Amino acid sequence: MFLDTPGIHKPMHKMNEVMVKTALQTYKEVDVILMLVEATEQPGGGDRFIIDTLSAVKTPIYLLLNKVDLIKKEALLPLIQGYSSMYKFAEIIPVSALKNDLAVLSRRS
Fold this sequence. Notes:
Layout: H1 14-25, E1 33-38, H2 45-54, E2 61-66, H3 73-86, E3 91-96, E4 101-102, E5 105-106
């Protein structure tokens, strides 16, 4: 079963607080976590916040770098290294749905 939670963000309203709380509670109820980020953006404060919330989780966490077709190839490795320095993901997976491209970079190798 695939469970798509609300996005984790800094809540500005009560409804947003409930959405974030719901997303954070699912950490304990799943077998795997997929963290989806845009390859066109450098890691920011929001990414660090999410990674900090994941640090206590024992569940395998996979990082999906979305839209890698929109960045230069030489920018991909530094982006991967940046995220790798923030957290030891089970896998880092650059994806491009537009180009039908998928690569798995294992942290175990």
